[in-house]
Design goal:
This protein is mainly alpha-helical and about 475 residues long. The chain has 19 helices and no strands.
Length: about 475
């Protein structure tokens, strides 16, 4: 009999490091953060210390304890059982669905700057934004079904969409400061964070921006030597993320007033203003295209990695077995990838309903944050719970052992909980705050409830099939 197809291990250190950069370093967060003013720099540092460092340490150890395909799903399942593992995977899987159109809307707004003033007429067109998002989701889905090599190629190239624009941004800010001085006044009062309804979403977005390093571990069986590669890739990718976010936000504040970089097109609009002031308008077209590439890469990275969760859930009979199928030629979980891409397209249409382009963008971002952070509670909880299990010599533990690991898990849980509370606050300029709140909270409750229903149905169906196979007495 022919052997069943298996997943292909072709993700190397370079691919994984670039994956962490393209999935974690999204230039739209620098513009969104800068629009909140100088105090956001302190929030960036707080997010780095209180969320990213505990997350990076937890992922490094958990992926060493359990390096197999599934990542977050497997860790939570090992720590808290099958039901909690499925709910963690379900919320993480579902949370990225509004993230896809959210990040692609940002890319759609950015590339318009490459095609002149006439193209800006499309900035108010929901049809254009939906067409851009749907078109790229189709391309990303087909490439990832085609194979790991095709999918990682798109991720690797898309990393240039964050590295090049942020490098150029910092250089332009330096020249702008040399000629015109700082556009923002920095002192102790302006740097002191003050939580208000206006900036609550900004704060939660900053913590959200540092997420993503857990995603690569979902492809554990497709990474070469994951125990060795994952920690070093996180170190390199995380360092680039921290420099890019804090340096990029500071550069925008030095070069421009905070009110010049808000909205879906905030980053490229800031670039436009700087290029005009410095007489470097030729830079705008390539930078706008690079930023669009950055948005595409963010969607591609999370679609490729997160689609592995329903694949593993299908293997464990928590989803229909069809999700566990591997393509005989391309050696990819093609059903899980295809269904996930289709679901992202459906959410793109649903997210636009009943609101403007700007309102849809803010709602999509907010929904992604509250749902995306729920699985981190499981992840940090698993970090604490699994300390009671013995670790073999091949496992890379957090320096300091169980006490340090437990402390990092508790800090991660605290910062995650605070971020969830902040993310439900509607944006200050949202015209219909109640509609926004209902979409965010109600959508999240329905999402979790649907996951519970799917799990219970799958368990019932599996039990029924098992009973039918029992011999009659």
């Amino acid at each position: 009999m022919a052997s069943s197809p298996t997943l292909k291990r072709s993700i190397r250190f370079r691919d994984l490091a670039l994956f962490y950069i393209v999935s974690g370093l999204n230039v739209r967060w620098t513009a969104m953060a800068a629009s909140a003013g100088p105090s956001i720099l302190v929030v960036w540092v707080a997010a780095l210390l209180c969320f990213f460092l505990p997350l990076a340490a937890s992922v490094s150890e958990l992926s060493s304890r359990h390096p197999e395909e599934g990542g977050l799903y497997v860790w939570t399942r090992e720590a808290f059982g099958e039901f909690n593992g499925f709910i963690a995977a379900w919320t993480y899987w579902m949370s990225n669905l509004p993230y896809f159109p959210g990040v692609l809307y940002f890319g759609a707004a950015s590339v318009l700057f490459a095609f002149g003033p006439q193209a800006q007429k499309l900035s108010k067109s929901p049809e254009y934004f939906m067409a851009f998002a749907v078109g790229w989701l189709v391309i990303i889905t087909l490439l990832n079904i085609r194979g790991v090599d095709a999918g990682k190629w798109l991720n690797n190239v898309s990393s240039l969409g964050s590295l090049i624009p942020l490098t150029v941004l910092i250089l332009l800010a330096y020249f702008s400061y040399a000629r015109f001085g700082s556009a923002t006044h920095f002192d102790a009062a302006s740097l002191a964070p003050h939580l208000t309804m206006k900036n609550a979403l900004f704060w939660s977005s900053v913590f959200f921006a540092f997420g993503g390093v857990e995603a690569g571990s979902a492809m554990g069986d497709e990474i070469k030597n994951p125990r060795k590669v994952i920690p070093w890739a996180i170190l390199l990718g995380g360092s680039v993320m921290a420099i890019g976010y804090i340096g990029g936000t500071g550069a925008l504040l030095v070069a421009l007033p905070s009110d010049a970089v808000g909205g879906p097109d905030g980053f490229v609009n800031g670039f436009n203003i700087m290029c005009t002031r410095l007489g470097l308008m030729w830079l705008l077209v390539p930078m706008a295209l690079f930023v669009g590439l950055n948005a595409v890469g963010g969607a591609a990275a999370f679609l490729s990695s997160t689609s592995r969760l329903p694949f593993v859930a299908g293997i464990h009979n928590c989803l229909p077995p069809v999700f566990s199928r591997i393509h005989p030629r391309y050696r990819t979980p093609w059903v899980a990838i295809g269904v996930y891409g289709l679901a992202g397209i459906i959410v793109t249409f649903l997210g636009q309903a009943g609101t403007s382009v700007r309102g849809a963008y803010e709602v999509l971002v907010s929904m992604a944050i509250i749902a995306y952070f729920l699985p981190y509670l499981f992840l940090f909880g698993a970090m604490i719970k699994l300390q009671s299990q013995p670790a073999g010599p091949e496992v890379r533990r957090v320096p300091g052992g169980k006490p340090v690991a437990t402390l990092l898990g508790l800090v991660g849980i605290a910062s995650t909980s605070i971020t969830i509370l902040l993310s439900v606050v509607p944006a200050d300029d949202e015209p219909n705050k109640m509609l926004s709140l209902v979409k965010i909270v109600g959508g999240t409750i329905l999402m979790v409830g649907a996951g519970m229903a799917v799990f219970l149905y799958s368990r019932w169906k599996t039990g029924r099939i098992a009973r039918e196979k029992l011999p009659l007495e």
